[in-house]
DNA sequence: GTTCTCACA
DNA sequence: TGTGAGTA
């Protein structure tokens, strides 16, 4: 269960999905891709688009941390909700600020509430589509002999 | 294994 | 918004 190496080789990781306070584990792009189940091209693309900020090894390899992986998982959850990369960047930025300074500042709390409303709206639209799919399925099944 | 760029849909 | 190919 060795994790990323290459220069800053910390190798203390255990892929347990449970909380694990920021250890020094470092992952290369392929390993991140595998863990978040996206192609390495997509991970690199998101990185290039500024959704992630990988460190670099001496050999210019991208180095990702555990928090980068969690960030990727957030992105993967936003994707089916139809967020554009720019919208994701915005939401992630809000979360970054909230995590650093909490949502005590009224302006930040408002941003967070907007994000929540936005996600809820998208979720509701998906639910409508699901309902439509169920009706369609029922209509098809009703034709079965 | 990784990097980057270019082309393509 | 990604991906495939070619390269170093």
From TrEMBL:
Database matches in InterPro entries: DNA-bd_dom_put_sf (IPR009061), MerR-type_HTH_dom (IPR000551), MerR_fam (IPR047057)
Keywords: DNA-binding
Biased composition annotated in UniProt, kind: Low complexity: 10-23
Pfam families: MerR_1
Gene3D superfamilies with a match to the protein in the record: 1.10.1660.10
Ranges of residues in domain HTH merR-type: 26-94
Residue ranges, annotated region (Disordered): 1-23
Superkingdom per UniProt: Bacteria
The protein, known as: MerR family transcriptional regulator
Organism annotation: Kineococcus halophytocola
């Amino acid at each position: 269960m060795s994790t990323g190496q290459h220069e800053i080789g910390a190798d203390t990781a255990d892929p347990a999905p449970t909380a694990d306070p920021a250890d020094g584990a470092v992952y290369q792009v392929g390993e991140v891709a595998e863990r978040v189940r996206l192609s390495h091209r997509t991970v690199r693309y998101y990185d290039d688009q500024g959704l992630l900020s990988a460190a670099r090894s001496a050999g210019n390899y991208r180095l990702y941390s555990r928090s980068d992986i969690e960030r990727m998982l957030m992105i993967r959850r936003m994707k089916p909700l139809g967020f554009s990369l720019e919208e994701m960047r915005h939401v992630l930025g809000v979360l970054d600020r909230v995590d650093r300074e909490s949502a005590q500042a009224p302006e930040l709390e408002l941003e967070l509430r907007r994000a929540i409303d936005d996600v809820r709206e998208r979720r509701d639209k998906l639910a409508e589509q699901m309902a439509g799919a169920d009706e369609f399925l029922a209509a098809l099944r009703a034709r079965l002999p």
